[in-house]
Amino acid sequence: MSEHTPRHDWTPEQVGILFDLPLNDLLFQAQTAHRAGFDPNTIQMSSLLSIKTGGCEEDCNYCSQSASNDTDLKAEKIVPLQDVVDAASNAKQAGATRFCMGAAWRNPKARDMPKIIEMVKAVKDLGLETCVTLGFVDEKQAEELQEAGLDYYNHNIDTSEANYGNVVSTHTFQDRLDTLATLRDANIKLCTGGIIGMGEERKDRGDMLRTLANLPKHPESVPINMLVPIEGTPFGDKDKIDSFELVRTIAVARIMMPKSYVRLSAGRMSLDDSAQALCFFAGANSIFCGDRLLTTGNAASDADAQLFDKLGLKSEQHFEGKITPEDLKQTA
Ligand code: SAM
Ligand code: DTB
Ligand code: SF4
Hints:
Helices cover 39% and strands 14% of the residues. It has 12 helices and 10 strands. Strands 1, 2, 3, 4, 5, 6, 7, 8, 9 and 10 form a 10-stranded parallel sheet that branches.
């Protein structure tokens, strides 16, 4: 077994040791693991669209979209198909290879499924990878999505099992794991990660990564979000977590899941170029592009184009010869 063969038997002690390494040692290990599995200068870009905003029945303490939280967000109906097609075409022009559609639902209802399936098919027809994040799904819904051409399903475990009750009360950690298993059984790729900076301990961050790495198969995509504090949510006044802790979390994720895409996700707007560069050095090889996440802003495309230029990074699409850095600048 090579040093970088994916493992599924991580112990809390082993993960704790990685997190506590001197930063240079941790980064060296992470970059070595990264180079064994990926081109170190290529970044995959995904774009997000909120297809059903607000009014969610769940009570996630970080979320602008929970009906339990008193935020300024207005609940909206599901968006028309044409809005999805327009947003996905623009995202492709801007260098995205994957388009992720998010809905503020506990779970999709039967009446929603035909609309979602139309959206997945239309995005797939544009030549993009498809991803949805719709909350809990049952076996039949997972199969329908797979048959429609869905590539990825995003369903985050968000934090450790021990900390889960401090984050949400309307569902359990096990509910999330059960849905991940249902999606795997339907042959859909998993995008699952979490949020750091919600007041958890380093041990919780390690346990979250351990849960992901010890799944029977590693998730293909692991988003690491930094909490975006939203006024009116219980976590709205949390202080920003130290950027080095984000870098460490990414590095440990990279070492534990060497063949997975690790995405530097929400929170990029609060990072300067140097912190983002360290995240890429730690093994992050995916970002959300475009100026919006779901309900909050994201790093602007022109800033990303400049950062890529400075760091000598290329988008995965460019790597495949479909788009040039000049194209990126023009669409910025
Ligand atoms: N309702 C579905 C669900 O919960 O899976 C899909 C949408 S939900 C907004 C998708 C993910 O976005 C959450 O699991 C969480 O990890 C992330 N997220 C939501 N609000 C966030 C925030 N304020 N800061 C960072 N990440 C956030
Ligand atoms: C993920 O891990 N992060 C994205 C996506 N998956 C769905 C969402 C981030 C949301 C940030 C807050 C907002 O814009 O509402
Ligand atoms: Fe609803 Fe998802 Fe927000 Fe939780 S994270 S309140 S399930 S939209």
